[in-house]
Amino acid sequence: AQSVTQLGSHVSVSEGALVLLRCNYSSSVPPYLFWYVQYPNQGLQLLLKYTSAATLVKGINGFEAEFKKSETSFHLTKPSAHMSDAAEYFCAVTDTNAGNMLTFGGGTRLMVKP
Amino acid sequence: EAQVTQNPRYLITVTGKKLTVTCSQNMNHEYMSWYRQDPGLGLRQIYYSMNVEVTDKGDVPEGYKVSRKEKRNFPLILESPSPNQTSLYFCASSLRARGPGELFFGEGSRLTVL
After folding, report:
1. I need a labelling partner for B4 at 20 to 30 A (CA). Which of A17, A45, B79, B110 fits?
2. Cβ atoms A74, A50 nearer than 8 A
3. Which of A6, A99, A104 shows the shortest C-beta gap to B43?
């Protein structure tokens, strides 16, 4: 069975500071990994995905994530936070067997202080 | 505009009163799914469909029904709602049945069962 753990349900950073949102996964087969973002009163939208190509994945809005197999991690980073980055972020995992049946983490709410 | 549309967006109902949440996508996607979102638990899959007339249970199907009579529509039915079904519900779709591909989400339906 797959699982995702997001460390920190709430993360607060100052505008311009580094954003680091942590995600660790468990999967018995090579995983596909995703980060989704949810803005207030909206659905989730895809930020980026890892599907066994390059381990450093770049997404929209300046975010990127690095797949580290040895650490079973897929942390999300952004060098400089903007106020508009305030949202909830979800890490998710699947594999070729599970297909579209993603397992989501509990989410991390990012707050950006002026 | 490509989108997943859910209705209603907000609903307050009473225990036992049957309700349906509609979901429609205009992208000719094969795969559709329903999730519920609860604080700290992330998103959990209720039911999914890989094509017309093909549906299957997700992780938390108890108390819910679905149908897929047409490719574009995937309604979620609560035959006898209970307070523990108070939640935020999302419909999602993906182009291919087996994925893993990008999930496109609706804006959510917030349901309160009194």
Report:
1. B79
2. yes
3. A104
**Tokens 């997404």 map to which residue?**
A59
- Tell me which amino acid residue A17 is: A
Beta strand residue intervals within B39-108, DSSP E: 42-51, 54-57, 65-66, 76-78, 87-94, 104-105
Give the pLDDT mean for B9-28.
Answer: 96
> Shortest CB distance from B31 goes to which of A9, A95, A100?
A100
Which residues of chain A have a CB within 8 Å of the CB of B56? none
The two tokens of residue B12 are 């307050």
Binned at pLDDT 50, 70 and 90, residue A2 comes out as confident
- From CA B52, how far away is CA B28, in angstroms rounded? 11
> Is A99 touching B (CB cutoff 8 A)?
yes
* Pairing of the two strands B10-13 and B109-113: parallel
Per-residue pLDDT at B2:
83
Residue A1 carries which side chain, given as an amino acid letter?
A
Chain A nearest CA to B39, separation (Å): 8
Matching residue, tokens 């609860």:
B38
Cα–Cα dist A69/A80, whole Å: 26
Enclosing H/E stretch for A76: strand A73-78
